[in-house]
Design brief:
About 40% of the residues lie in helices and about 20% in strands. It is of the alpha/beta class and about 325 residues long. It has 2 domains: about 5-110 and about 145-270, Metallo-beta-lactamase, Chain A, CATH 3.60.15.10; about 110-145 and about 275-325, Orthogonal Bundle (Arc Repressor Mutant, subunit A), CATH 1.10.10. Keywords: Hydrolase.
């Protein structure tokens, strides 16, 4: 698959788009944020709320003769820490922050730890592992600042700017309110984490914004998003991590295939005998700890929910602990 570095591809666009690479403390590595010059000066995503990211952002802006207080508008692709961690700080300098309202829980760092603990117990996860997950999430939240005030984005909305509008696309799955920003005259999207080269973005499990007592059907929704990208792809994506994506349809199909492979692996685990999620989790991710353990749980439970929806997996409960099996 043809790859091109983000700065090289961005430099070929007729419209000025300046990528700035910021460090993160996460396994995914550094994050691209995008400076869109003109009136109003716009930043797409912000990086995490760490000293290293803030210094790198200031240095990146200074390279263009700018400072944080010059940023008048911040567009958030989704409410994860490496994308919105510094939004509140820029907001304090006077920038307007825009995000999709379906990510309000993420933006506000609303964790619902008590409910998470109950769900994990029901799935057979041991007390030590439940605590490891929640401590990992608590530590993660130290790298962001809750954003309680923002302007809501709408699907299809065209955001005016000096060099032409930005069109909002809702691409949920990785988060409920994930959006991408299209440069219509270029056919290019500033796409956050919806599709990444060499990484299958986690369809993170969280309460459904429309029905908080139920989990958001992240994997099902994400697959729908990927199918749309495969059938009607933009010319290219400028993502938050890794190189520019020039073969969007091919990568969307590849990501769908990898998700299907994961589902088949889970079904093979269940074909021998009924198992709890915790048992499968240990077998598939034996080295996962802390935040990585939560992400592994999220990925696994998301697949089990989707397999259950398809009728390929059934669950039963005994003594308050749920077991999954193939019918």
């Amino acid at each position: 698959m043809k790859l091109e570095e983000v700065p090289a591809f961005a430099g070929q666009l007729a419209r000025p788009v300046y990528p700035i690479l910021l460090p993160t403390p996460y396994p995914v590595g550094p994050v691209w944020v995008y400076l869109l010059p003109g009136d109003p000066l716009t930043l797409v995503d912000t990086g995490p709320a760490t000293g290293a990211a803030w210094r790198a952002l200031k240095a990146g802006l200074a390279a263009y003769g700018l400072a944080p207080q010059d940023v008048r508008r911040v567009l958030i692709t989704h409410g994860h820490h490496d994308h919105m961690g510094l939004a509140r700080k820029l907001q304090a300098f006077g920038a307007e922050v825009l995000a999709h309202p379906a990510d309000r829980n993420n933006l506000g760092l609303r964790r619902h730890f008590a409910n998470l603990n109950r769900v994990l117990y029901r799935l057979g996860v041991s007390f030590p592992n439940r605590m490891l997950m929640m401590v990992g999430l608590w530590a993660l939240d130290r790298t962001s600042k809750p954003l309680k005030r923002f302007s809501p984005l709408a699907v299809g909305q065209e955001i005016p700017s000096q060099y032409g509008p930005l069109r909002v696309h809702h691409v949920p799955g990785h988060s409920p309110g994930h959006v991408a920003f299209e440069l219509p005259e270029e056919g290019v999207w500033l796409s956050g984490d919806v599709l990444l080269s060499g990484i299958v973005p986690n369809a993170v499990l969280e309460p459904d914004p429309q029905n908080p007592s139920h989990p958001f059907p992240a994997l099902s929704v994400y697959r729908s998003t990927l199918q749309k990208l495969a059938s009607s792809p933009p010319r290219a994506l400028l993502p938050a991590h890794g190189p520019a994506i020039l073969e969007v349809a091919a990568l969307a199909r590849e990501t769908l295939a990898k998700q299907e492979q994961r589902s088949q692996t889970i079904l093979r685990h269940l074909s021998a005998q009924p198992q709890t999620l915790a048992t499968i989790l240990t077998a598939m991710y034996p080295k996962a700890r802390g935040l990585s353990l939560f992400l592994a749980y999220s990925d696994l439970y998301g697949h089990l929910l989707e397999l259950e929806r398809q009728g390929l997996v059934v669950r039963t409960s005994r003594n308050g602990v749920e077991t999954f099996f193939t019918p």
